[in-house]
Each structure stands twice: as C-alpha cells, then as structure tokens.
Amino acid sequence: MNPDPTVDFTSITQDDLDHADSQDYTEKYPKGLSEKLIRQISEEKNEPQWVLDIRLKGFEIFQQKSTPTWGPDLSDLDLNEIRYFASPNSEKNQKSWDDVDPEIKRTFERLKIPEAEKAVLAGVGAQYDSETVYHNIKDEWAEQGVIFEDFDVAIEKYPEIVKKYFTKCVPINDHKFAALHYAIFSGGTFLYVPKGVKITQPLQAYFRMNAKNGGQFEHTLIIIEDGANAEYIEGCSAPKFGTNSLHAGGVEIFVGKNARARYSSVENWSADTYNLNTKRSLVKEGGKIEWVGGNLGSGTTMLYPCSVLIGDNARADHLGVAFANKDQNQDTGAKIIINGKNCRASVVSKSLSKGGGISTYRGLLDVKKTAENAIITVECDALMLDEISVSDTIPVINVENDSAQINHEASAGKISDEVLLYFESRGIDEEAAKAMIVNGFLDEVVKTLPLEYAGELNRLIELEMEGSIG
Predict the structure, then answer these.
(1) d(CA 316, CA 264)
(2) Who contacts 377 (Cβ-Cβ below 8 Å, separation ≥6)?
(3) Is the sign of the CA dihedral 455, 461, 466, 470 positive or negative?
(4) Closest by Cα among 262, 201, 207, 215 to 235
C-alpha cells in the first residue's frame, strides 16, 4: 500500500486526454455493422450459442428501431462510418501492469490509473478500445467471495450467474442504441458481491477509446446480494480526431434486500464522441442505490440513469453534474420508477453551460399504483457562464397513487457583474473568480466522490473553464 493515499490529478493536461496511440491494429475489422462482423467477433471470443443469440436479436431490433428524435440532433452520426470493434495487439486481462503493452500502459499512467489502484482501490479494470488489458482485485476481497472480472471472462467462468441477470435490467428492445449495444458489446465489468460482504474500498474500471471513428460498447453488470455493500467507479476518456466516435455502453445493477450500491462515473469523452449510454438499477426491499455522475467533453450526450424501486422501503439518490462547452449538447437527467411502498428518492442535478453550449435536465418520475407513501425531491440548478449558452429543464411526472409527496425545484442563473466586482475588489481576477464560483456551485456533487476522484473531476472542470473570459 502506498503510504501516501493521495493521487495528484492536477498534473493531468488536455494533451494527456487528447493523446492518441498508434492505429495499426484498427484495420483488422471493417467499419460499419453487419451480421458477418457480429458472428466473427462472437467466434473469436469463443462465446456460447446463447450469447450469440442475444447479439443477433440485438442486431435485428437495432435495424428495426428508428433513431430517437426527441432529444439532441443525431442526424450527423453516420453509423456506417463507426469502427464497432478494435482489438489492440496485446495480451488481455493482465494481472500485473508490468505485463501490459508499454504504449498502452503509458496511456493509463498519464491518466493516473495505476497510482489510484495503489492508493485507494480494492480492484481495477482497464479497457482499451474493445478489450480489457488489465484486471485485478485485492486478495482480501477475493477471499470473501467477491468476483471482479472483465465481463467477457465472466461469461466464460460464471455463465449461470451471468445468464440469470444479463439483459434482465436493461432489455434488448429498450431503444435503438440499447439494441446496438447488445449486438456488439465487448469487455466491461462483472462485479458480484456475496450476501453480507461490505467492501470498504471502491473498485474502479477505466475505459479508454483510442481508435479513430471508434465505438466502445462495454457492459457493466453489478450484483450486490442481500445485506452487502459496494462502491464502484467508472472513468472514461477518448482522444480528439475531428471525426465521429460512438459510446453506447450498458450498465445493469441489481441491489438486494437491505443492500447498498454506489455507482459513480466521470465521463470525459472527446468533443467527437456521441455518448449514448444506458444505465439502470433494480432495487429490492430496504435496498439503496446511489448514482453520482459527471458528464463532460462529449459533443452530444444522452444519458439518464434509471432506478426502479421494486421493493418496499427502497431508496434511490441521484447526484449529477453536466458541463456543456462550445458545440456541446449535454442532455442528461434521471429516471425513477417506484413500485414498492414507503420508498424515497432524491435527484440533485447541476449543469454548467459555456461558449454557447446546451445543457438540459430531462427527467422522469413514475409512481405506480402500488407505491404508497412515496416521497421524491428533485432539485435542478443551472449556471450559465455567458450570454449565449442555453439551459433547459424538461421533467415528466406520472403519479398513480395520491399518497405520494413530490417536490420539484428548478433554477437557472448567471454570474452577476456585482459578484465579479466583489471578487475584483478583493484582488481576485475574473477567471479565478468564475472558477471559485463554479467550484462552490458543484460542491454538493463533488464532495460525494472519494477524495482522489473529486480531485479528478475538479481538474477536468478546470480544463473546461480555461479561457472562460469572453
């Protein structure tokens, strides 16, 4: 264990995030999606027939469903130009960083991943394009029955557990990009925490997209059994090429009775990327799911983590921040569906817009007839850093039980000249003043992350804020 449990994310630069490695491995698989490619990938992964059947069903539904038109404009996304699979020329699932391809290892070192593992993490997975290059968990948790594997490995080693849960939270026909995900998924995370085990350190997976015109479709399957407890963090990034990339991952989380799961993600894709992710959790009696999310960088994001509270006394807390910079459209929010009695849920959404960026909170609250005494609070706060940026709040509230208590608050504002003048009178220049105001505005979300990852999110926001004057 590193005696100093801090990780210095302040040294990360925009060049670190935008850096791209060599592309010589990407030509093996053609652009565009076809049944032939799907069968080829499944054969190379040596998958059982039931997995191929899921892929083919996903491909069929993907072809049938239309592209969503109710949110951000997706008309410039040419799906025929996406490279849906890219496998680096290296061994997969190494247990030591020393065995990872040196060029790939240097990329993750620039992003501080090995440092973070030594300092604060119970386990780490690292994915590079379509394949996991490193995956490991500390012995103390493996000895208690915790399984933390690359998802492809889990299909091979734990097929009965995977079959029981896979596609049961996010159905294949959920929407066009969910179907696409199931057709071409590769890599990702499988986390299983046995009954009563409480993991006291976070586990993390980091997903790096390197291929030009790349697509990344990792699947995250998390199962927290009754009375268990775990925190999982995902980080994401991609270089900027000037041509479109696509991220359409899938996250399924199952929270048992009186169990607790916290899922945190800091997604910092490049401005080339369409981030069309699907995340959902099923929560049983007395269980709790916490979502903590930061969305930055991508040109277009459509992401609405969903909590389905199926048991009595279940709880969901959603905390999120989205930063829309120039030419970016961050369409994010939360969905909460309540079936059980005496359930509680809260949403805190913070959005920032700069340089003409568009940030939108899009949410759904759906209280079913069986959901007696549900209590839900929603707080949406938007801060615009100039006169040309845009912020919207689009809530949908369906209530079928009169006993529900729902409170929705939304506010939008700008940094006033009076506030900036006050800072200036104290010797603080405008750019530094704006940064301080933004940090205070986001504090409620940032402070929920482990210290090291709060530092990472703060650093990414600093990079977005550079040149904020004018």
Answers:
(1) 13
(2) 345, 346, 347, 406, 407, 408, 409
(3) negative
(4) 207
Structure tokens at 438: 């933004």
Task: Give every residue of the chain whose pLDDT is below 70, as ranges.
Answer: 1-23, 89-91, 114, 116-120, 450-453, 455, 467-470
Strand partners, 379: 348, 409
Q: Kindly give the pairing relationship between strand 306-309 and strand 219-224.
A: unpaired
pLDDT in tens, 305-344: 999 999 999 999 999 999 999 999 999 999 999 999 999 9
Q: Are 225 and 256 in contact (CB under 8 A)?
A: yes
The Cα–Cα gap between 443 and 370 comes to 36
Residue matched to tokens 């680096």:
88
Structure tokens at 390: 């845009």
Overall pTM surpassing 0.85 (yes/no):
yes
